[in-house]
Amino acid sequence: MKKFLSEKRKQVTAVVALLVVALAAAGGYQLWHSVQPKFQDVTIELGTDSVTLAEFLTQYADASLVSFVADPSSINIDETGDESVSLAYRDRTETVTLHVVDTTAPTVEFLDVYEAPLNYEPNAEDFIESIEDYSETTVSFAESTESARSGADHDVTVVVTDASGNSVSQDCTISYTWIEESYDLEYGDRLTKQDLLAYQNVGTSLIEQSDINEINEAGVGEYVISSSNGYKTAECVVTVADTTAPEVELQEVAVYPGSEVELEDFVVSATDMSGDVELRLADEVDTSEVGTYAVTIEAEDIYGNVAEAEATLIVKTDDVPPVISGLSTISIAKNSGTPDYLSGVTAVDAIDGECSVSYDDSGVNYSAAGTYYVTYTASDTSGNVASSKRKVSITHDSSDTDALVASIAAGLGNDAKSIADYVRSYVSYNHDWGGSDPVWYGFTNKVGNCYVHAMCTKAILDKKGITSQLIWTTEKTHYWLIVYVNGGWKHLDATPMSGSIREACKQYMNDAERLATLRGRTWDTSLWPACN
Q1: Cβ atoms within 10 A of the Cβ of 55, count?
Q2: What is the reported pLDDT for 17?
Q3: What CA dihedral angle connects 76, 80, 81 and 82, to 10 degrees?
Q4: Cut 0.85: pTM above it
Q5: pLDDT of 402 above 50
Q6: Which tens digit of pLDDT belongs to each residue from 300-323?
Q7: 420 burial class (0-12, 13-18, 19+ CB within 10 angstroms)?
């Protein structure tokens, strides 16, 4: 029994000992652990979005017991430098340092400068498409650019450096130009040097005017103009193209139903720089019904440019009669019978063409001299009737003249001066001589010259039995009468006069008085009796 208890005692003692050792060990660990650093300084790269609490904790810190003393959003991470950060752990506060550093070079998209003008002054900024960095940057050349201003293509080294001294560089090319690579010219327009310059007034002297002239005289096509500045040769491809549609001027066309209409009827003009224009109707033209229609005409040049123009087509009711032609005045002798009134006479209708013509001469007295009219008539198939009159002159003979003079004389007295007064007032003056029968001419037309007045007066005097003679100046520039009255001869002039001699010529005149009115003219006194 004692032995058993002794063994148990040893076992318990051993367990207790182990427990003591274990407890001692545990307390020491905690003591050791409690003195280990809980926080650490943190270094971040400029541009980091945020900093977390965990980044400041060491492995010995219990995250559930740690917090920021100040609002963490107040920590400045947008600039490089050191900033103190206060952290709380249980009942004590510690301060650590946040280092914001910039060790990243800028991200840069470089450019080559193409088509720089000849007077271009290199600028480092021109070679930058974009820069990405979290600090201010500067752009510069790594070397002098003096030699790059010669006009020859040149490489330059462009450097981009941020505020922390991080930099990136790249070789970029300056390519000079003064002429466009291509130029489109409308056919018919005039090309100038300025048209081809990449920059206004820069490089004008480098383009030959003869090259410009050659293109201006050429037609549609592609032409290459070469130009050199002494370092490089540039080329411009000039494309001369015709993109302008023809110009078309149309006119209104009016026709009757069923008429044929040609395209050319609508066209006044169609012009194009190419010289050749093809015209066509966009739709078929129908003239079967009365109405107003739009007619579209297309005009295409040899380069395929098409213009459309619209004309008006009027299909109108046929209300226009035929046109009768050939109705000139007919002169026929008295008692000569009926002439061929249809000779040379036509009637033409716009739709039917030539139509038949009839005439009515019932108003013509072929046995009596005078002026008459024959009526002509023509009709078309639409019932439109044309009517025109033709003048017919039945010429007189001596018996007509005698009868006319007798009828006039019957209404006058036997005084020669009064008869002259009648003729002077009845027959006006013009320069006509009256043809073969001045008496008939004067009394029927009521006009004539001095010879007509003298002959008309003499015819009545003869009918009255009064003796008279026709007299004229030596040059035959004036005619009048001498009459035998009161036992002697007197001058009598029936011609209408004007001015100061008007009243003198209305009286009987002796030779001296007559001579005074002739204004320097005279007559052959040997041919006529003297008037006293």
Answers
A1: 13
A2: 46
A3: 40
A4: no
A5: yes
A6: 999 999 999 999 999 999 889 999
A7: buried
